[in-house]
């Protein structure tokens, strides 16, 4: 199978160039950022006692800074939501929503400057907010002339522009907002009768201000395309399913995906020939299968969470192997198990194993949300924990960063103003 020709070195304005000729053999440096548990068990760590998060994505930038939403922060006899930010095991809540406001969704993307975008239901409507590290405040961002009923797939790029999906009363659209205003990239035919798109799924946004997404082009939604949309209204076909293109080997795509800053997309698909799920990487010209399900092989199942891709073309995703749930990473040639059920990690309570305190033969979930990867190959994930050798004791859930061997924490120069 043909492969991408990818740069051997990815440059970042925050770092010296770091070479990645090939995937490392293993990720072995795991650092706990925060942990939550029921108060009847313990107070958790790096969070107010009794705090909890559930079904969240932990976001990660190229400086190994982490952000995630905390759905419940105890507040006397009540509670409110908050936003956690930190790095290398040092951090805490930087934003706490008033009791009558609700943080919505599992996402809280963070960019290179440490700015965090999130959705907040405040009063009568939902808005996009950006937390700024310099001011220590969160500001609602106007997306006029787009006034949606709801937002989705919110993201923030290196320049501070926001990309998102907007749900309107008549349909959906993709848009981006920056200091110069809001631009609509594409709309479905419920909003624009001339549009070829009958449905617009979750999107991803990159530093080139391009939006990648799966769209449907038929009334029954059977014809699927993955496209890359630009602010000028043009789009590029990345990959289509067999209902759209008879020569395509893929029957359908998952509803969510990721895109890197080189406009390369990672998405999970189902092969038409054998019905097996595969993780794809494609730039619209070359499509590579990163991993495929094999009932007798390494990957027994690919879970229904979007993969993440960095600028080197490394793709990280959730899967199941012979031991249970796991996180894998691939570059099209090599596949590496990052971490999974039963693996040992260090925590504030001591040595733990990845897993749940209930050993469910039907597959009790161990991981939360999708893993994130940065340009250096560091990976953020959320996982359940129990003491080593004792699956009947609950240590709650932890947010971790797995550092790539070439990018140890001591190699990183923090941006100005960060003292963590």
Q: Outline of this structure?
A:
With 420 residues, the chain is mainly beta. 0% of the residues lie in helices and 50% in strands. A hairpin with a 2-residue loop joins β29 and β30 (350-354).
Detailed description of the structure:
This protein is mainly beta and 420 residues long. 0% of the residues lie in helices and 50% in strands. It has strands spanning 9-12, 15-19, 29-36, 59-60, 65-75, 78-87, 90-96, 101-104, 116-122, 125-132, 137-141, 150-156, 162-167, 172-178, 181-187, 199-205, 211-216, 224-229, 235-240, 250-259, 265-271, 277-282, 287-292, 301-302, 308-309, 315-321, 324-330, 335-340, 344-347, 350-354, 367-373, 379-387, 397-403. Strands 3, 29, 30, 31, 32 and 33 form a six-stranded antiparallel sheet that branches.
Rg, Å, rounded: 21 Å
Q: Return the average pLDDT rounded to an integer.
A: 89
The share of residues in extended strands comes to over 45%
Derived structural class: mainly beta
Give the assembly state of these chains: single chain
Can you tell me the overall shape?
globular
Largest sheet: 6 strands, antiparallel
| Overall helicity | under 10%
Q: Please report the total strand number as a whole number.
A: 33
Q: Tally the helices.
A: 0
Stretches where pLDDT falls below 50 for ≥5 residues? 1-21, 407-420
End-to-end C-alpha gap: 45 Å
């Amino acid at each position: 199978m043909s492969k991408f020709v990818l740069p051997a070195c990815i440059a970042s304005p925050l770092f010296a160039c770091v070479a990645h000729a090939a995937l490392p053999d293993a990720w072995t440096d795991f650092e706990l950022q925060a942990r939550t548990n029921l108060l009847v068990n313990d107070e958790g760590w790096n969070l107010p006692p009794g705090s909890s998060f559930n079904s969240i994505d932990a976001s990660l930038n190229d400086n190994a800074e982490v952000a995630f939403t905390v759905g419940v922060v105890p507040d006397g006899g009540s509670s409110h939501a908050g936003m956690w930010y930190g790095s290398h095991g040092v951090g805490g809540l930087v934003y706490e929503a008033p009791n009558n406001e609700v943080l919505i969704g599992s996402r809280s993307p963070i960019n290179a400057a440490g700015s965090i975008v999130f959705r907040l239901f405040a009063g009568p409507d939902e808005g996009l907010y950006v937390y700024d590290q310099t001011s220590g405040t969160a500001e609602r961002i106007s997306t006029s002339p787009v006034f949606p009923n709801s937002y989705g797939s919110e993201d923030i790029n290196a320049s501070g522009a926001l990309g998102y999906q907007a749900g309107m009363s008549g349909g959906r659209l993709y848009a981006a907002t920056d200091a110069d205003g809001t631009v609509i990239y594409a709309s479905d035919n419920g909003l624009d009768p001339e549009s070829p798109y009958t449905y617009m799924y979750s999107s991803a946004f990159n530093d080139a201000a391009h939006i990648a997404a799966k769209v449907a082009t038929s009334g029954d939604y059977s014809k699927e395309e993955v496209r890359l949309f630009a602010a000028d209204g043009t789009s590029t076909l990345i990959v289509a399913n067999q209902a759209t293109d008879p020569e395509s080997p893929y029957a359908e795509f998952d509803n969510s995906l990721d895109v890197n800053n080189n406009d390369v997309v990672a998405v999970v698909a189902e092969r038409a020939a054998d019905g097996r799920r595969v993780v794809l990487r494609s730039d619209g010209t070359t499509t590579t299968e990163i991993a495929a399900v094999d009932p007798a092989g390494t990957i027994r199942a690919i879970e229904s969470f979007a993969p993440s891709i960095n600028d080197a073309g490394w793709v990280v995703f959730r899967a199941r192997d012979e031991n249970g749930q796991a996180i894998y990473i691939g570059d099209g040639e090599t596949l590496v198990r990052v971490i999974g059920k039963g693996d040992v990690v260090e925590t504030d309570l001591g040595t733990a194993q990845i897993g749940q305190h209930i050993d469910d033969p039907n597959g009790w979930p161990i991981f939360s949300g999708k893993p994130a990867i940065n340009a250096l190959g560091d990976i953020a994930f959320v996982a359940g924990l129990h003491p080593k050798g004792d699956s009947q004791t609950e240590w709650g859930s932890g947010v971790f960063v797995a550092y790539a061997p070439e990018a140890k924490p001591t190699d990183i120069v923090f941006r100005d103003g960060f003292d963590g």
